[in-house]
TrEMBL record, chain A:
Residues 20-59 form the Phosphoribosylformylglycinamidine synthase linker domain. The keyword Ubl conjugation does not apply. GO terms for biological process: 'de novo' IMP biosynthetic process. Keywords: ATP-binding, Cytoplasm, Ligase, Magnesium, Metal-binding, Nucleotide-binding, Purine biosynthesis. Pfam families: AIRS, AIRS_C, FGAR-AT_linker. It comes from freshwater metagenome. One of its GO terms (molecular function) is metal ion binding. Residues 211-366, 584-716 form the PurM-like C-terminal domain. InterPro entries: PRibForGlyAmidine_synth_PurL (IPR010074), PurL_linker (IPR041609), PurM-like_C_dom (IPR010918), PurM-like_C_sf (IPR036676), PurM-like_N (IPR016188), PurM-like_N_sf (IPR036921). The keyword ATP-binding applies. Residues 83-198, 452-571 form the PurM-like N-terminal domain. This is Unannotated protein.
UniProtKB/TrEMBL annotation, chain B:
Keywords: ATP-binding, Cytoplasm, Ligase, Nucleotide-binding, Purine biosynthesis. One of its GO terms (biological process) is purine nucleotide biosynthetic process. Pfam families: PurS (PF02700). GO terms for molecular function: ATP binding; ligase activity. The keyword Nucleotide-binding applies. This is Unannotated protein. The lineage of its organism: unclassified sequences, metagenomes, ecological metagenomes. HAMAP family: PurS.
Length: 743, 81
């Protein structure tokens, strides 16, 4: 094969290059030529193509995501904002917390186990890169129908991959979601969240400042993983005896990552790095160009120094490789010996591959020949920006006008069968089959995990300071009204933090949508971003970062718009949290918030094939008052339990509460045809000792939140308006669904 | 009675953590011959009589479906006397 160098590109400006096969549009290719003043070399073409891809450049979403900055609330809690690997939030007592969600949807469809596993590995390295010790992970997942053949192929592999990687790292998995819907068949969603903790002084950024500083690659060797698209270049440049088409699948090794985490933390503790970046999507192309443009811009890299797992890799492939478990650091020369020593101690492969220069170009050589000579900002940040056409899809008005017709429970028999059906439906059934494959308690700091409303971990063993995280998305509502859907998901995630008594602090997101080239999908996306930005502004919560995943569709069918919203909160003493359920008889149950006939987009409607109607309208002022009530109630220890109402409404929440500690309840509620199945937002069930009633009423009055007594706890049955549901029967219905489906 | 053997290996470009671990352990135990090690798995399937081409094709299909993960692995089917 012939090496394509800058000199050759200058001598031979008209060589035909496979830019279209690499996903670049003709005008994008022309723009590269304009930037460089010549045709790109094949290595430069590979770098631009992957860095200007939708995944890396956010070219379709950028114009909308700007709102998160424009509408940002001023808050001292945000130590590092959008743009870095992950945002960092002050949680008090000198601690800072960083958290982020990313998608790994497409790889997980092709190879479920490895796709999901490397999704976890990637987000953990993002958190590590900020200087934080990763302390927990969470995984919101979406699948096709539970009984579909492909779901049986994909789901067990994905669950095992999430569990396998996280368990090997010794990170507790403290929550997430498992949701089924037809539109995810052929396109499951694997979103991975990681949270890490550090002291304020330990924050690290991705920048390469200081001429003469060394560029150091450490961690696993580079192989031909995940360079699918670039195989076009390989097939162009390799002769027929060269290697076969490279796979787009990456295989991770969690034990290497564990060592990489400990090695990196020791390096951080001795303050040996100026800047650091993990190698994820787009590998070295991304790390070198982002580090260089984060500094003054100049960097020289000798690519032939990169340690290889496969000696046949071409320079283009090395630049693109997405081999897992690698990091790139900028190190001052005076610290390099100590850096190498620590890597040796941990048995981590480490190589100095280049240095920071005082120029403004990123120059990469291959055995002395210059193969890349670019302004790094043009690769990393000045990619194309598209203002893609958007148009409200015709379906919206049509489905909004549909009347939702579902059976309404009124007799005792109907109430009982409704509760049992909702308890057993895959979207609401007990998820122990999934979460028991995850280690939820490793490290000994897990306070809450599934099936609690939020995950909670202790971060200081002396003061018992803790953080809580919840992720939520209601795609059914987003389908009916993406603007309100995003706001409602935000409100729900914040409420899920607050039921335990934690105070919501910051927001991250993972926006999963269909093709941005479809104006209807683009409209859904724009509306969702607008809703989330408006919602965050109104609730005073900063967006710390996020991820956009487009092209989630099978043929012409896009997934439901699925903006997954993660909210992080802080609790000063985890021992004072409000649990999600009651463990004794004689308590009184109150429903906080207003119940309307919100059946559209509900689980009960979905179970009856009804996808129309209008989504509820979020009342964020009321949500904020409810949150204040919940936090105040926790601080003054009024509640014995508090549990959010969401999918499945009152029926599902009561099911979860009575089964948690096997203590029944006797419920009487008006307007049962609506009350049992409605999913009106902004509602919580609380359990109190009757002696605390005055305090509770005072709080509700102060915050102007509707309150109604719905019953008392005790007995072996869940009784609703006289309909008796034995707990054993309810438990069987709730727990047998997953084992029956997935073995 | 004959034995059909299916050998499954990770594709050469795929990371093999077990092989890496073995090749790191060998020199520690004084074995210095290995430049690299890759680890696979072997299935031995007993059948009655001489395997027919149709039978071998069926085994290959089973290998593709169950014994190997064709996304990241390759396999070979052979008859062992």
């Amino acid at each position: 094969m012939a090496l394509d160098t800058v000199a050759i590109a200058q001598r031979n400006p008209d060589a035909v290059q496979p830019f279209a096969e690499l996903g670049l549009k003709p005008d994008e290719y022309a723009r590269i030529k304009e930037i460089l003043g010549r045709r790109p070399t094949s290595s430069e073409l590979a770098m631009y193509s992957v860095m200007w891809s939708e995944h890396c450049s956010y070219k379709s979403s950028k114009v909308h995501l700007k709102q998160f900055g424009d509408k940002a609330v001023k808050t001292d809690a945000l130590l590092v904002g959008i743009g870095e690997n992950a945002g960092v939030v002050d949680v008090g007592q000198g601690y800072a917390v960083t958290f982020k969600i990313e998608s790994h949807n497409h790889p997980s469809f092709i190879e479920p186990y490895q796709g999901a596993a490397t999704g976890v590995g990637g987000i953990v390295r993002d958190i590590l890169t900020m200087g934080a010790r990763p302390i927990a992970v969470m995984d919101p997942l979406r699948f096709g129908p539970a009984d579909a053949a492909d779901t049986r192929r994909v789901l067990p592999g994905i669950i095992a991959g999430v569990g396998g990687y996280g368990n090997c790292l010794g990170l507790p998995n403290i929550g997430g979601e498992v949701v089924f819907d037809e539109t995810y068949i052929g396109n499951p969603l694997v979103n991975a969240l990681c949270v890490g903790v550090m002291k304020h002084s330990d924050i690290k950024l991705a920048k390469a400042a200081g001429a003469g500083n060394l560029v150091v690659l450490y961690g696993a060797k580079t192989g031909g993983d995940g360079i699918g698209g670039v195989s076009v270049l390989a097939s162009e440049t390799f002769d027929s005896t060269g290697p076969a088409k490279r796979p787009a699948v990456q295989v991770g090794d969690p034990f290497v990552e564990k060592v990489l985490i400990e090695c990196s933390l020791e390096i951080f503790a001795e303050d040996l790095v100026v800047g650091i970046q993990d190698l994820g999507g787009a590998g070295l192309s991304c790390a070198t160009s982002e580090l260089a443009s984060g500094g003054s811009g100049g960097m020289k890299v000798e690519l032939d120094r990169v340690p290889l797992r496969d000696a046949t890799l071409s320079p283009e492939e090395i630049l693109m490789s997405e081999s897992q478990e690698r990091m790139c650091a900028i190190v001052e020369p005076k610290h390099i010996d100590r850096f190498l020593e620590i890597c040796k101690k941990w048995d981590v492969t480490v190589t100095v591959i280049g240095e920071v220069t005082d120029g403004e170009r990123l120059e990469i050589t291959w055995h002395g020949d210059l193969i890349v000579d670019v302004p790094p900002r043009t690769v990393a940040h000045d990619g194309p920006v598209y203002n893609r056409p958007l148009a409200k899809p015709e379906y919206v008005d049509r489905v909004n006008a549909e009347k939702v017709i579902v059976p309404r429970p009124s007799t005792a028999g109907e109430i009982k069968s409704t509760v049992l059906k909702l308890a057993a439906t895959p979207n609401l059934a007990d998820k122990s089959w999934v979460t028991s494959q995850y280690d939820r308690y490793v490290q000994g700091n897990t306070i809450q995990s599934q099936p609690d409303d939020s995950g909670m971990v202790r971060i200081d063993e002396k003061t018992h300071l803790g953080v809580a995280i919840a992720t939520d998305a209601n795609a059914n509502w987003s389908y009916l009204n993406p603007y309100e859907g995003a706001k409602l998901a935000l409100a729900e995630a914040a409420r899920n933090i607050a039921t335990a008594g934690a105070i919501p602090l910051a927001v991250t997101n993972c926006l999963n949508f269909g093709s941005p080239e479809d104006p209807g999908v683009m409209w859904q996306f724009a509306e969702s971003v607008r809703g989330l930005a408006d919602g965050c502004l109104e609730m005073g919560l900063p967006v710390t970062g996020g991820n956009v995943s487009f092209y989630n569709q099978t043929g012409a069918i896009a997934i439901l718009p699925t903006p997954v919203i993660g909210v992080l909160g802080v609790i000063d003493d985890v021992r004072t949290r409000t649990p999600m359920s009651f463990d004794r008889a004689g308590l009184e149950l109150y429903l906080l918030g207003e119940t309307a006939d919100d059946i559209a987009g509900s689980e009960w409607a979905y179970m009856h094939g009804q996808r129309g109607g209008c989504a509820p309208v979020a009342d964020l002022q009321r949500e904020m008052r409810l949150i204040e009530l919940l936090v105040a109630g926790r601080t003054s220890q009024i509640f014995t339990a508090a549990h959010d109402l969401s999918q499945g409404g009152l029926s599902a929440s009561l099911t979860e509460m009575v089964l948690r500690h096997n203590v029944g309840a006797d419920i009487t509620i008006a307007n049962i045809e609506v009350a049992l199945i409605s999913e009106s937002p902004g509602r919580v069930i609380v359990a109190i000792d009757p002696a605390k009633l005055e305090q509770l009423l005072a709080l509700a009055k102060k915050q102007d939140i509707d309150i109604v007594k719905i019953g008392t706890t005790g007995g072996d049955n869940l009784v609703i308006n006289g309909a008796v549901i034995p707990l054993n029967e309810l438990r069987t219905a709730h727990t047998e669904t997953f084992p029956k489906l997935f073995g | 009675m004959a034995k059909i053997v299916v050998d499954v290996m990770l594709k050469p470009e795929i990371l093999d953590p077990q092989g890496v671990a073995v090749s790191a352990a060998l020199p520690r135990l004084g074995f210095t011959f290995a430049k690299s090690v890759r680890q696979g798995k072997r299935f031995e399937i007993e059948v009655d009589g001489e395997p027919t081409p149709a039978q071998l094709a069926e085994v290959a299909k089973a290998a593709e479906t169950l014994l190997a993960n064709p996304v990241i692995e390759t396999f070979t089917v052979r008859v062992e006397k």
